[in-house]
Design brief:
single chain; alpha+beta; three-stranded antiparallel beta sheet; 5 helices; 25% strand; disordered N terminus
Length: 236
């Protein structure tokens, strides 16, 4: 009788009435303190890696930008130098009988033997003088200015006088004084160089003929009067 009417064990009944699956699930998903610390550490490490990668990329971009700027500056400098300097100076007699152009800031240094070269300065003691224009018009000419020079005769016989010096440069005016009649092959004369008859037009001294002289013919022409043009090799 006692066995049949005794109440059930409440503790045992409560414990057994909880489904085994739910209890196990709660226990499995509840993180331990150690696991939480591990997750925090992993997230911190990942954040540092992202920041380091971003910094590295930014630094790399800066290097690329700096390199690009340097390259652009170098190229622009080279292009500017080429545009300004190369081939923009005076026309100069070349070894093949033609003409080349010196660079900006250079002279065409020539002697009376028709040897010429481009240089920053000419060696006058050796007979090289700056011949920086052939006339007003044409390649290497002075444009609206006058190509004015000095011609020094030191012997020979008319009309084949020998010269010891020739210079020329662009100028706003030129007091050319080449004589109307050559009495001798000596003296220093201011001459107006020309590459066309138009370069001599309106010359105040009446030197309106553009001629060359000598044997072999001179590589330059200058303005002379009609009386001198009669003994010239040719006139333009």
């Amino acid at each position: 009788m006692d066995d049949a009417t005794s109440p059930p064990d409440l503790d045992t009944g409560f414990a057994n009435s909880e489904p085994a699956g739910e209890g196990a699930s709660e226990r499995d998903t509840r993180p331990s303190p150690d696991a939480a610390e591990d997750v925090d550490a992993q997230e911190a490490t990942a954040d540092r890696q992202v920041e380091a990668s971003t910094d590295s990329e930014a630094h790399g971009d800066g290097d690329v930008a700096a390199d690009a700027t340097a390259d652009a500056g170098s190229d622009a400098g080279a292009d500017a130098r080429n545009d300004v300097e190369v081939g923009t100076g005076p026309r100069c007699l070349a070894t093949d009988g033609g003409f080349d152009f010196c660079n900006a800031g250079e002279h065409c240094c020539a002697n009376t033997d028709r040897v010429a070269a481009c240089a920053a300065s000419c060696d006058a003691p050796s007979g090289f003088y700056p011949v920086d224009c052939p006339g007003a018009s044409g390649a290497g000419g002075c444009g609206s200015q006058i190509c004015c020079g000095t011609l020094v005769f030191d012997g020979g016989a008319i009309p084949n006088c020998s010269a010891s010096q020739l210079t020329s440069a662009c100028s706003d005016s030129c007091g050319d004084n080449f004589p109307g009649t050559l009495a001798s092959c000596g003296g220093s004369y201011t001459i107006r160089l020309c590459t066309a008859a138009a370069d001599c037009a309106g010359d105040p001294n009446g030197d309106t003929y553009c001629c060359n002289f000598g044997n072999p013919p001179s590589v330059i022409n200058w303005c002379v009067a009609s009386t001198v043009a009669l003994v010239a090799n040719s006139c333009l």
